[in-house]
Specification:
The complex is a heterodimer of chains A (100) and B (279).
Chain A: H1 3-25, H2 47-61, H3 67-72, H4 76-80, H5 84-99
Helix pairs in contact in A: 1-2, 1-5
Chain B: E1 2-6, E2 9-16, E3 28-32, H1 41-53, E4 57-61, H2 78-91, E5 98-103, H3 105-116, E6 121-127, H4 134-151, H5 154-164, H6 166-181, H7 184-187, H8 196-200, E7 206-211, H9 222-226, E8 230-235, H10 242-245, H11 247-262, H12 267-278
The chains are: A mainly alpha (100), B alpha/beta (279).
InterPro entries (chain A): ACP-like_sf, PP-bd_ACP
Protein name (chain A): Acyl carrier protein
Pfam families (chain A): PP-binding
């Protein structure tokens, strides 16, 4: 396994954990999450849940990983269609940029 | 991220500090969303980060009965919402003056606050919105009656799903359940309404952003005539959802407007600068 793959696995695990936290607050548990899971169709999350997730990501990784800025460049349809893997891509890229 | 008791209601809010400048010396905008399916997400996921990146402090909050704020059974007059905004600024110790940016009903709340405490408001950006006048209240009565009728019909949700997808239909169902569990529909237009004379004497500069096909498309300059310090920008091809559907254009108008007012550019020049940027 390469360093990048390891990092990607770690980021995915952390984001999945955050999502479980958000879902638990909504009374949902025991849900399967993989990189193809969509926030809207599969997890049935609303935009306000994405705000919570954004805040959790900001708390975890700080300034270099600004999900709110990333989402502000997207149209509503794109935000609704987001999948967990898209977020993992974004975090891994942002962390690599900050580290490089 | 936080929750704080304001006006007796547990209120969810989000803040972003201005970047690249001393936040203590930077202007502050307060984002106020609309009724129903809306929440602070409409602003947080569109304007908040770019506005903070432009050197402006951001506060966004969920109105009572919306998003992650407390949802009491009663207490949804327009006056409650205005009181909530003033109380939130007080408990967060934001002295201002602040720039209030309101979408739809959120703009009406902004006008209500500016009329009550004009010294606390540097400017208003009103998006598809209007002040709390008697004609506004009359329209709200009709709109709430219509909404109650529509949301009582299963066909409404089926149509919504067919036209806009399951996501919108799900949101509407949840909003309907919340609305019917509270007195929001039956009391939101109650409160201290504003006279034409009071409106004309409002000292606050107002940037009024409308969709060309929005709710005020028939007479887009009515607010300019009613206020002494207001100019309207119409974004063609947009409807009442102009904030979400044309958020880049709204951002391009908002940032130079707030910067201009903050640096004592005459408000009419701040309008001209904002308009030129999207022309």
């Amino acid at each position: 396994m390469t360093t990048t793959e390891a990092s990607r696995d770690v980021v995915f695990a952390e984001i999945a954990g955050m999502l479980r936290t958000v879902l638990a607050e909504l009374g949902v548990d025991d849900v399967e999450i993989d990189e193809g899971t969509s926030f809207n169709e599969d997890l049935e999350l609303e935009s306000i849940d994405l705000v919570t997730l954004t805040a959790l990501i900001s708390e975890r990784w700080g300034e270099p990983v600004n999900l709110a800025e990333f989402l502000a460049d997207k149209d509503l349809d794109e935000v609704i269609a987001l999948k967990v893997g898209d977020l993992v891509d974004f975090v891994v890229t942002a962390l690599a940029r900050a580290g490089g | 991220m936080g929750k704080i008791l304001a006006n007796g209601n547990n209120t969810h809010y989000q803040r972003m500090d201005a970047k690249g400048v001393d936040p203590a010396a930077a202007p502050t905008v307060v984002f106020i969303h609309g009724l129903g399916t809306d929440s602070l997400a409409s602003f947080y996921l569109t304007l908040a980060a770019p506005v903070a990146a432009a050197g402006i402090n951001v506060l966004a909050y969920d109105l009572r009965g919306h998003g992650r704020s407390e949802c009491p059974d009663t207490g949804y007059t327009f006056q409650h919402f205005v009181g909530d905004l003033g109380a939130l600024l007080d408990v967060l110790e934001i002295e201002g003056p602040v720039h209030l940016v309101g979408n739809s009903f959120g703009g009406t709340v902004a006008f209500g606050h500016a009329l009550a405490r004009p010294e606390q408001v540097a400017s208003i950006v009103s998006i598809e919105s209007e002040p709390p006048t008697q004609p506004w209240a009359d329209r709200m009565v009709q709109a709430m009656d219509y909404m109650a009728e529509q949301l009582s019909s299963e066909q409404t949700f089926l149509d919504l799903e067919a036209q806009n997808g399951a996501h919108h239909a799900k949101l509407a169902r949840k909003a309907a359940a919340k609305l019917f569990a509270t007195t929001m529909i039956s009391e939101v237009w109650h409160g201290r309404l504003t006279s034409a004379e009071e409106l004309r004497s409002l000292p606050t500069p107002v940037l009024h952003i409308l969709g060309g096909e929005g709710l005020q498309g028939g007479d887009p300059h009515a607010l300019e005539r009613a206020l002494s310090h207001c100019r309207t920008v119409v974004i063609p091809g947009q409807d009442h959802s102009v904030l979400v559907d044309a958020h880049r254009k709204v951002r391009e108008l908002l940032i130079p407007w707030v910067r201009g007012i903050h640096t004592d550019v005459p408000w009419i020049d701040a309008v001209a600068e904002a308009r030129a940027l999207i022309a």
